Amino acid sequence: xxxxxxxxxxxxxxxxxxxxxxxxxxxxxxxxxxxxxxxxxxxxxxxxxxxxxxxxxxxxxxxxxxxxxxxxxxxxxxxxxxxxxxxxxxxxxxxxxxxxxxxxxxxxxxxxxxxxxxxxxxxxxxxxxxxxxxxxxxxxxxxxxxxxxxxxxxxxxxxxxxxxxxxxxxxxxxxxxxxxxxxxxxxxxxxxxxxxxxxxxxxxxxxxxxxxxxxxxxxxxxxxxxxxxxxxxxxxxxxxxxxxxxxxxxxxxx
Length: 254
Ligand code: PGA
What we know:
Bound molecules: 2-phosphoglycolic acid
CATH class: Alpha Beta
Number of helices: 11
Structural class: alpha/beta
């Protein structure tokens, strides 16, 4: 697989017009790392301005509705994200599963809507601490993958524009990063599940790790077998914190 590592910053509900300066700094530096695919996902109000502020990095949303338009107060459609210049959308993040009761079937419907709108999709999966302690982590994650990714007729389209993010819930924003061996084992399990769904096309799908990734631990995580990139929360909010992660992903030839 010769895909570039994919480093995605998820700003969550953080951001301001002033913070676009961080995005500009990340974008300027991105030109030094052509072997890494870099993207930022700010809150809705900043997507358009961030899009206009950058040229070398991708821009995405953090959620979308299943419908293209209509009577859904407060929601935003995938078509709107595409229209404002977004390249992709993050779906099924554990904070949305927790705060908004999103389940696998809804995540799948959103993913199908996003693909239909021409967006790339990052589907997030991950177990809670209770599930890991009960020895159910792989089964839980496999079930989430199976239920959340586009299947059936959409599968062929999906494989080319889909990424998975494995984010153990207990590692998100806690400073508690998963052990590299556990990440390797889980990424292999996710890969196996994707192969069962997409066949050979599964090779096109990058599997990212997320959960307390920072400049110090990035090299170990990104160098691990089967890790195709990182979904970064807290450490994506400033160029100073984010760029060392990008640098760790970069492996210039020679
Ligand atoms: P974190 O968040 O890097 O702040 O742990 C990761 C994520 O939730 O995507």
